[in-house]
Specification:
Layout (H helix, E strand, L loop, with lengths): L2 E10 L2 E11 L4 E5 L6 H8 L7 E6 L2 E2 L5 H7 E4 L11 H6 L14 H13 L15 H14 L4 E5 L7 H14 L5 E5 L3 H7 L2 E6 L2 E6 L1 H4 L2 H8 L1 E8 L2 E9 L5
Parallel strand pairs: 3-8, 3-9, 6-7, 7-8
Antiparallel strand pairs: 1-2, 1-4, 4-5, 9-10, 11-12
Helix pairs in contact: 4-5
Length: 260
Amino acid sequence: MILEATGLSFVRDGATILHDVDFRLDPNEVVGLIGPNGAGKTTLLRCLIGLARPERGDIRLDGRSLAEWPSRARAGAMAYLAQNPDCHWPMSVERVVALGRLPHLDPWQAIAPGDIAAVERAIQATDIGHLRDRPVTCLSGGERARVLLARALAVDAPFLFADEPVAGLDPGHQIQVMGLLRRSAGRDRAAVVVLHDLTLAARHCTRLVLLAEGRVVADGPPGEVLTAPILARIYGIAARIETHDGALMVVPEGLAQVDA
């Protein structure tokens, strides 16, 4: 299954948020969407999964226009973890994770052994087994973030889209979540992740798409996108870029000097 978007433009309140954006997602990729605040990352993500409708452009999933996909089939093919998700009902953690199986169930259909197994895999992968019986409303922000990631993983979809999934997590769980997303992209699956931490993006993504002012300004392997000149031009920072254990590390050292 391949997701391909061409010529996407999106306008909100008279302002153009995306300008003629092309994007392609192939199996076994972990694509990091990076860029400054307001670059259009979340808007692009929402367009790709059908939650926002672009003014122009075409999006095709498995060769078929995304608009032609029934909503249930689309939900089963593309799992989504929104930015700053929250829960307002005091459901148990296990029941919240099980909601990820809804796209695969007919109305009033009982959950099957395969669904139970998918829920258990997601719970174990996100290290929330000890929380399974607790009301999700009683958890910390970081714990809730992992629960909602587990719900997205339980969909067991070919594509997973996550908008800042490590925000609010401690460093250990940030690494755990990014490693999990990288592993989940095997078996002909793929993930798209919005990130601000450039070192996490470099270490765990197979490809980076850098947005600025609604345009794609770089698309390629981390080593080609995360260069000092590009970071100075797009983020306005002077950064030290090093390699450790075969992976890039990006260390911002200050604001980039602007020539008079």
